[in-house]
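BUG-372 | component: ligand-complex export | severity: low

The export step for uridine-5'-diphosphate jobs runs without errors, but we want the raw record kept on the ticket for reference. Input record follows.
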Amino acid sequence: MEYSETNLVVGAGFSGAVIANLLADRLGERVLIIDKKDHIAGNCYDFRDENGIMIHKYGSHIFHTNNEKVWKYLKQFTDFNTYMHKVIGVLDGIETHIPFNFNTLYDVFPQSFARRLEQKLLDVFEINTKVPILEFQKQDDDDLKFLANYVYEKIFLHYTTKQWGVKPDEVDGAVTARVPVYLSKDNRYFQDKYQGIPQDGYTKVVERMLDNENIELRLNTDFQEYKTKNFKRIFYTGSIDEFFDYEFGKLPYRSVNFKFETHNREYYQSNACVNYPCNYDFTRIHEYKYYLGDKSEKTVIAKEYSEEFELGKNERYYPIPKDENTALYNKYLQEAKALKNVYFLGRLGDYKYYDIDKAVLRAIELFEEICR
Ligand code: UDP
């Protein structure tokens, strides 16, 4: 292989696959893409199990975007079904909707009280607006103060403590704002124009992106093997601190542990994703057959337990948005800028809590920048 004529892409998740695909397809350049795992698609990896159920090995992935460019790009590789994600939360034994919305009010409170709260909320907020919980807590009215405390306590406090190891006001406001209080009767988790699950799964999408004569894929392959080679460009989607041998210290991450169970019944729960913000050690339970409407007499679920990331023990899932972590990341970014033809991208490379569409967009925009 002529390394100086080849692009090296480290990591075959969405970020790596998109940049590899664009370099190979649009510029006709050679790409070597490596991944230390034994499969492609990174944490979006999914597969059909022996029951014919599409399992997301690393937790549920639900595609949603308002971005036309991302949508058009991905549609080259797959059709999406029309699945619209809803999340059920069990609050003191009552199944209701998350994000907290007007329908939730009527599920958890006596009807006359719910009506009063709805009216008061409409006096203060525009209908169909989304209010982050930390903002929602700033209420003067006693009823609304009570409601804000209820939502904080029942939906955010314990879930966030389980998920991040700290209270909601100790994580970056943008994290809890992902799940706002929604002044609406729309029970969907996302309101994006385009949403769905790829018809043949996420792994197939990545496989099709990499199916190009200019791309060579090597799995079970560590970057260390290629570090000293002189590539045309390097695109690194691993954690940026690892690239620099942790010279300024380790960037912290949250990890997740999924405990899978197969049950001899058609369905386990009423919905693909059920959150447990008040009880248990797990945060939520995923039931996979809902996503693509898979038919089987059995069902597979995963209970999700959040934990600290420890090198060598588990995987990186979530960067932890926090000033001191951003400062550490910025130190690495400075180092990165001094390198020629080395680019960092993806959740780990950019140390950003990207959803799939944002990771795809970042890779497309990086490609456009290189072409300029
Ligand atoms: N969250 C919560 N209770 C819930 C759902 C979410 O407190 O029932 C908070 C929690 O801090 C979580 C964040 O909102 O980490 C973002 O949730 P999201 O579902 O977007 O997280 P992801 O699916 O990316 O893990």
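Assignee comment: Attached the raw record above. Residues 142-164 form the longest helix (23 residues).
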